[in-house]
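Sample pair:
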Amino acid sequence: MTLRKPTKLEIYHVVKDYFFITIGLMSYAGAWATFLLPYQITTGGTTGIGAIIYYATGFPIQSTYFIVNAILMMFAFKLLGLKFCIKTSYSILLLTFLLWYFQKLINGPDGVAPLILGQGQEFMACIIGSVMCGFGLGVVFNVNGSTGGTDIIAAIVNKYKDISLGRMIQLCDVIIISSCYFVFHDLRRVIFGFVTLFIIGYVLDYVVNSARQSVQFFIFSKEYNKIADVINKKTHRGVTVFDGTGWYSKHNVKVLFVLASKRQSVEIFRLVKSIDSNAFISQSAVIGVFGEGFDKLKVKVNKKEEEAIEQVLIQDSKTHQS
């Protein structure tokens, strides 16, 4: 069996994915080293577990993070596949290094991290740190990467269920944040942890959903065939042609229907204008698009529903035959 040589496009996509994973992890590690750890703020995930252990014992956060994720990866391999696990392993190793490196870079000669925002600025540190964490996680998830820990659990659930990643991670992390009370015996620390968790989830969902926003176009033009061809070839999006009737002119018209990602909107407008500057175009935002070229449909049908659907189809078939 000979291995197929990857194309330049495939290599480009792989390099791009790992580049964005690196950028996301730098933001995530920088937030921990600069804002969360110095102000003793806890959040969820294996980094949250590592932070609690670090606050209580001084054991390095990156070491706990690596050990816990190494165990979780043993269970993730069969469920998420080789491609996901390669990216996740890369993320775990890189984040372990970045957590160590940024702490070393920021900590003073005495090994203590300075309070960049000054004393008593825990809330501002909480806000800035959680925004950076959420942004970093969002960038990583957009290229189907993971930082490990509860992200692995969230990715497993999201693989089979259409559940928000941010909400799933929040559910996994509530216990971790609550447990910091037993270290500090301070409810403020728990509240800061939950504020951080909420902001991370919100920013994560915003980054992920912004990248996946879709739009739909209705295009009316006499040059519909040329427009359909160029959109199909240049944007690699499907085009559906509908028959219509202009009620004012009473003439038959062809209507092009196109679904595309939001970032392709300007390109589609330019393509249409280059062919027919008088074309009539309607653009609207779409909440969700599922299918080939877009998100996968992750709703599962249970056995009872399958049996009920089968019975309906059989009944309809008998009715048509009679």
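The chain has a mean pLDDT of 83.
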